[in-house]
Design brief:
The protein is mostly beta strands. The chain is built from three helices and 22 strands. The strands form three sheets. It has a 16-stranded antiparallel beta barrel.
């Protein structure tokens, strides 16, 4: 509760400051650029603040075999406030930046991106320290506001996305090649992590919206408690976990290696990844994996917005917003994805699961989107289920 009052007070302070600076002598200007931005005339200081809200609703269906193995449905439908975020981000003297991103969904306060960064360091490039995303998977580096389907692929559930740590990153050859490396601390002081990622743009033609992104990442994880546990759901945040690895003990280390690709050609896009997790214990080695392929097509002619290696994909701007002065139709996108996870190896029988998702997205304007997904789930030898789900989201 105190955190909510604090963020509310800070937000009101910035609003008050901005709107009292209307005199000609004011060195700051306030503008809307898919979020409020306060900027000094000499570009030495900038502050952007806003937030996002997502509301999800889903219907669940499952066959008798699925019910026998995982139990009956607790509820056939459910509604959730998926995201309720406020953020502040800014730059100071053109060489320092920061971000505070807090989520209030689920009656809990969770820190997301909270860091301080330094730019343009010779040779190194950029430095960030705080709570931030590890450079491992393209699916998790893309903000949840811009995923093609309502949730990222199942590889996002293999270990945490964010941790406290230090990240170094830089771009080379006019951003054709990018590299990130960082050291992080596992949650609750549970050991340390070393993660690195290298990506390149094999094709880049901005005029034709033609791009091919390829990447490789590796993460070494040394848990202090010598335990490891993993589970994944059916492609929906509201859903329960259907396949899982019970806590393994005497773990020496965990190794994640991930191959990624993304292709854009006009309104068409493809994204795919293969992740392998190797867990070494005192007595054995276990291998688990996930792969997925995802395609989308903009019926109205827009293209995916590739922001960069570490940022992934970003905001979509319709050619004509829905209604308003242009009386347009907004942007319409159809998408499909196939994903498969294998958590069986040797004596570990965590299960195998595949899902096929079909999506329809309607971008009314750059900050408002309606999503409709239908996901069909198959758990090997344990039955089938499906989920019909929808979302309305807005940024401000």
């Amino acid at each position: 509760m105190h955190s909510k009052h604090l963020l509310y007070s800070v937000l009101m302070l910035f609003y008050s400051f901005a709107f009292t600076q209307e005199a000609p002598s004011n060195p700051f200007s306030l503008k809307w650029d898919n979020g409020f931005e306060l900027k000094s005339q000499d570009d030495q200081f900038a502050l952007k603040f806003g937030g996002s809200l997502m509301i999800d609703h889903a219907y669940f269906f499952q066959d008798d075999t699925f019910t026998e193995n995982f139990g009956p449905l607790i509820s056939e439908s459910i509604t959730e406030i998926r995201r309720a975020r406020l953020f502040f981000a800014g730059s100071i003297y053109e060489n320092t930046n920061f971000k505070i991103d807090v989520d209030f969904a689920g009656d809990k306060v969770r820190l997301k991106d909270v860091y301080i960064g330094i730019n343009n360091i010779p040779v190194i490039g950029n430095l960030r320290i705080g709570h931030l995303k590890e450079p491992v998977r393209l699916s998790t580096l893309t903000s949840g506001k811009y995923t093609t389907l309502m949730v990222p692929a199942q590889n996002a559930w293999i270990d945490k996305t964010r941790n406290n740590g230090i990240l170094l990153f830089n771009d080379f050859l006019n951003k054709r090649i990018s590299a990130q490396v960082g050291t992080f601390q596992n949650a609750d002081n549970n050991g340390y992590i070393l993660s690195g990622r290298f990506t390149g743009l094999a094709l880049r033609d901005m005029e034709k919206n033609h791009l091919l992104h390829l990447g490789l990442s590796y993460s070494y994880r040394n848990p202090k408690r010598k335990e490891y546990q993993f589970s994944t759901n059916s492609g929906l945040n509201l859903d329960s976990k259907n396949i899982n690895i019970e806590p393994l003990s005497d773990i020496e280390d965990i190794n994640l290696i991930n191959f990624e690709s993304a292709y854009i050609y006009g309104p068409f896009s493809f994204q795919g990844e293969y992740l392998k997790a190797t867990i070494n214990s005192n007595t054995s080695r276990f291998n688990f994996s996930n792969y997925y392929g995802e395609m989308s097509y903009f019926i109205t002619g827009e293209s995916k917005n590739y922001k960069g290696s570490y940022e992934g994909f970003g905001l979509i701007k319709p050619k004509k917003n829905f209604g308003g002065r242009n009386k347009g139709a907004g942007a319409w996108e159809i998408a499909l994805r196939y994903s498969s996870t294998d958590l069986n190896d040797k004596t570990i029988l965590g299960g195998k699961q595949s899902d096929f998702g079909l999506g329809l997205n309607w971008y009314l304007n750059p900050v408002t989107r309606l999503m409709l997904n239908h996901v069909w789930v198959n758990t090997e030898n344990n039955g089938n289920a499906s989920i019909l789900q929808g979302r309305i989201q807005i940024e401000f």
